[in-house]
Amino acid sequence: MNIPGDWLPNATIQRAILHWTAGSHKATEFDRKHYHVLIEDDGRLIRGIPTIDLNTLPKAKSGYAAHTLNCNTGSIGVSLCAMAGAIERPFKAGTQPLTKTQWDMASSVVAQLCRRYTIPVGPRTVLSHAEVQANLGIQQRGKWDIAKLPFDPAFDTARECGDRFRAEVKAKL
Predict the structure, then answer these.
(1) Which of 34, 53, 70, 88 lies at a 20 to 30 A Cα distance from 141?
(2) What sign does the CA torsion over 105, 118, 17, 147 have?
(3) Residue 138 in contact with residue 69, Cβ under 8 Å?
(4) CA-to-CA separations, 7 to 10, 61, 133, 148, in angstroms, rounded
């Protein structure tokens, strides 16, 4: 499934940041206020309320998607509807774990965003919220999305998950 063209306005964008909602498998109105594209458990795409062009460089506009602390301008927020009640350590995926279907759709969505907005795939341009502090040096408030993959426990650090995601995005370009 492709992102509909009318969801992709002209904008100057430099990165895509992957999140999970820490909620249910279905997008809520609250979720829709904070992200540009949401992916439900079955892979269905839900449009966020703020349009991508509100997060454009050089300065985000009123009503932008506030998905990453001090890192919204020039950033598209893509979120997987999942991980309600999750605990990082010892890891528990909660009642609504992230699905492989969502993960696969996310790499397709981000590949399409990279093509549309000419975003090169790298650890500073395609990353998860859990990688923002380490990769961009922007202090976050303990965000660990996405540092664990419930469907593949072999991937249990933000960097491992991020590297896997970037490789999957590159393969779809």
Answers:
(1) 53
(2) positive
(3) yes
(4) 10, 17, 28, 29
Each residue's pLDDT tens digit, 70-115: 999 999 999 999 999 999 999 999 999 999 999 999 999 999 999 9
Q: What are the strands, taking DSSP E only, across the chain?
A: 15-20, 37-39, 45-47, 75-80, 126-128
**Phi and psi for 51 in degrees, rounded to 5?**
-85, 155
Here the tokens at position 112 are 């399409």
Burial, 89: exposed, middle or buried (Cβ in 10 Å; 0-12, 13-18, 19+)?
exposed
Residue 90 in tokens: 């010892």
pTM over 0.90: yes
Question: Tokens 């050089």 sit at which residue?
Answer: 58
